[in-house]
């Protein structure tokens, strides 16, 4: 700007040419950096491919060695024996569990259970001694017995039970 104000046109032209040359060199330098980064990326990719190939070689070798050392008939025999022993253990566990359950089961529990069941059945108007109704005449007799001995709530339940028995 100073040279243009001072009316020095030759020096302005030379400076303009230098400026254009510098801009072109910057563009070339930027392109060179992009190319170097692309080459670096390709080299990294090739390196990882090489490492992967080596790992696959080693894995293949170890698999071949394992296949040579593995005896399939023996392995099948071992698996059959394992299955047999596992089944035997399961049966023993079941028998042991049943034995413990039988030892822990008291007659008092059974008697208490029967007592509670009979109380519930008495509340709804059913007893084991009455049995199932087979004939319509017996059904009517049973209904009159239940009506005379039942409370209002249990009467409703007992008649619905009698209806089911008649089905």
Task: Describe the model.
The structure is a single chain. The protein has helices spanning 2-5, 9-69, 72-104, 107-124, 136-149, 152-166. The protein is mainly α and 167 residues long. Helix 5 (136-149) runs antiparallel to helix 6 (152-166). The longest helix has 61 residues, at 9-69. It is elongated.
Reconstruct the topology from this structure.
Layout lengths: L1 H4 L3 H61 L2 H33 L2 H18 L11 H14 L2 H15 L1
Helix pairs in contact: 5-6
Specify the helix fraction band: over 70%
Quote the distance from N terminus to C terminus. 117 Å
Main sheet: strands, sense, barrel: none
Radius of gyration, Cα only, in angstroms?
A: 50 Å
What's the mean pLDDT score? Answer: 77
Secondary structure tally, helices: 6
Shape: elongated
Strand content: under 5%
What order do the SSEs take from the amino end to the carboxyl end, as H and E? HHHHHH
* Strand elements, count: 0
Task: List low-pLDDT spans.
Answer: 148-167
Query: What structural class results from the helix and strand content?
Result: mainly alpha
